[in-house]
Amino acid sequence: MGETYGLLSLLPIAVVVITAIITKKVIEPLILGTVVGAILLYGFSFFPNWVGDLLATMSDPDVVWTMVIPALFGILIAMFGQSNAGTAFRELAIKYVKNKQNSLLATYIFGIIIFMDEYMNALLIGGTMRNLTDKFKVPREVLAYVTNSTGTPVSVLLPFSSWAVFLMGLYGSSELLDGDGFTTYLSTIPFMVYPMITLIIVLLFIFRKVPMTKYVKEAVARAEKGNLFPEGSGPDTEGFEDELEENSGNTKKPRLINFVLPIIVLVAGTIMFDMDLIIGVILAIVTCFILYRLNGTMTYSELFDTSVKGIQDMVELIVLIIAIFLLVRVNENLGTIEYVITSVEPLITPLLLPGITLLVVAFLGFTTGNYWGTMGIVLPIILPLTQMSDVNTSLVLGAMVSGGVFGSHVCFFGDAVTLTSASTQVSNMSQIRVSFPYALAGLILSFFIFLGLGLIV
């Protein structure tokens, strides 16, 4: 079927990429791409067939699993927020933090601990640590950089996070990958070069072992004079203030056990039940219910209301997941993979494939803000090229994920940047002016490392 549609099989992907660049949106371009694909496939009867493909996608076991996990994580994230559990860590840190570097180091460590979801990381870390870093005159945009550049790399390097869940589902749905999504994901972790380099760069940045850019020097000098906010930023400049004020006004007693125990149960439960992440998250949620009632943190009504809100907060993510998998189905029906293989086979250079994958995904993530969508689009294209070139699949997938993480860091209209800017109360561009030079340096270094790995792996 792919040979029949030829060059037209690339049209849905082109529509998604171009529309995303123009509109700076994610879900709508993906849906539009699936509609365009349905028109190519079914002609004037595209709509009922598009609905049929949508229902078939939503009933696919791998897709259902990937939809359920974010909903469960949403409940857990909401529980932590409503119980004020994260504040307990800040109160503990205040007892030991004595200077500016240590306050950023505490933020870095806290970011590693809050690894389950980048949204939770962005809002919780910035919102709880800003009072601590303010005490030592840390510029808010520097706090934003450390927060955002720690959260996503940690989330993607640990197989118990929303990033991991999405990628496991994506891998599990591919007929070109052997084994289950979890096993495939684990095999790619050693090759997630950019996230590892980013964590190292952030740590070096904290201890001033890498040069400060001109903008960072100016920000530090400004903060030393008592002005923590860059021009155009401040407590009332971002659109998420209502949510942040609600969190900051939480009067519930912070208890460290309210965070630590559910996380231990999440990890231990997942491992004990044959790495079943659904069981692990459910056990963590049950732990929250029991623990928060026993210590009087939340009432039954608050627990159930918080659970519903947590699911609601993940609805957009679930819709995004459905749209991505529907586009994958459309591309398979159009024969996109076969066409790409036939077209680029004479041009394939096995040595460059991991590095090129990194750069392509990084560029698309940066220009569209669609990091997960980009990976969903790229995966069915790079897998045949990888297998045909006899390149290590885990290496190429690690490069793909690395590119996605870069996009998450530097897309000024992306979710991760926006939420981090909101929690630290700076503009998105102020954060990017700090983070982009270091992220770009990490990307360039990662590219050359992937070239080297291509020779030895």
From TrEMBL:
It holds the Pfam family Na_H_antiporter. The chain crosses the membrane at residues 6-23, 30-51, 63-81, 102-125, 185-207, 256-272, 278-294, 314-331, 351-383, 395-416, 436-456. Signal peptide: none annotated. Residues 230-249 are annotated as: Disordered. It is found in: Cell membrane. Residues 185-454 form the Na+/H+ antiporter NhaC-like C-terminal domain. InterPro entries: Na/H_Antiport_NhaC-like_C. It comes from the Bacteria. GO terms for cellular component: plasma membrane. It is a multi-pass membrane protein. PANTHER family: NA+/H+ ANTIPORTER-RELATED, NA+_H+ ANTIPORTER NHAC-LIKE C-TERMINAL DOMAIN-CONTAINING PROTEIN. This is Na+/H+ antiporter NhaC. It comes from Alteribacillus iranensis.
